[in-house]
Every structure is written in structure tokens, then in C-alpha cells.
Known about the structure:
By secondary structure, this protein is mainly α. The chain has 9 helices and no strands.
Amino acid sequence: MAWLKYDESVFLWINGLGGHSSVIDNIFSAIANDYFVIILSCMILILLWTGTRNPDKRRHIQKGIMVATSSLGISQLAVNFINDIWVRPRPFETLDVNLLFYPPTDPSFPSNSASVLFALSWGIFIYDRKAGSIMLAISTIMSFSRVYVGIHYPLDILGGSSSCSCNCIVFHCCFQTVGSNSKPRNRFVALFLPGLMRVLLLTSIVG
């Protein structure tokens, strides 16, 4: 398919930037690490959750964090569902690449790490533009790094990140029902959803 060929061409151009400087390669390899960036993002969420003494502002940003984690749960289920339908090989399995990272064994599309980071980032961005912009920048750099080191196609990143924005909008609309003028039933549904999504997320990871 033509769009897959174009995706490969963009990948080869970005990946071809590597292999010329060991310092730059090591920096991008460190950024591409799942645990480093995701732990950094979680630390930012903790700081946002507890970082203000203003009760109204604190409740506002906490609502954003619940939207972010709820979107994360749905996104992870979507990744698992897509992987059951289409197993796209990693770039290093079919192409001659500059592999600067350990070779992951899960399918390439969609990017699991991109879905995690962009779910958290877009959820926060809706409620806090400054913090959300920082997290989106971190997510973008990390996603570029994973193409640079040879373990993801650009389309993998786009697929992992695009669904998250839709999920965040849906959950934001759900949380708009939470307020002093909303019905108790609506408040219960909006508060119950994040817990349900986190349970589903843990179930999908364990499975």
C-alpha cells in the first residue's frame, strides 16, 4: 500500500539521521526508554495533584488527571485490540535500519508508549495549558526518539497518539457533568468511570 511505503520512507529518513554521532545516539536512546519518560510524566502528575494550595485550582487539575488516566485505560485496551487484528512487524524486522535500542518483541502499530504519554499529556492540556504543553513536548521528543533509534514507524506514533486525543475529549465531556448543579447520578457515573478504566487497564496489562 502506498501510505505504508510513504511511512517507510519517512522512517528511513529519520532513522538515517542516526549512526553519525555516538553522543547524540546515546541521548536519543536514553530518551526513547519507556520507563524514564513515563516515570518523569508520572512525577509531573504527582506534582500537579499536590502542587497548589488553592482548593478550586487543585480540584480542577485533579479532574484533568482523572481524565488523563481514564483515557490511558481506554487507549491501552485499544492498543491490545488492534494488536489482535493487525500485527505489524517492527522496522528492524523488515528493513535495514540503524538499530540503536534493544529490539522490542510486541507489534509495532500502534505505539504503546505514545498512547500512554499522549493520553496523559492531552488530558492535562485540557485543564492546564502550561503543564500540558510541557508534557506534550516531552511526549513528542520521546516519540521522535523511538523512530530515530529504529523501533517505530512514524505512523505507529500517529496511531498511538491520535486515539488518545479523542478519548480525552470524551472523558472531558463526562467530567463536565461533575459539579454542584449536576445530578447525583451524573456525578456518580463521572466519578466511577476513572476507577473502572484503571481496573480495565491493570487487567489488560496482567493479561
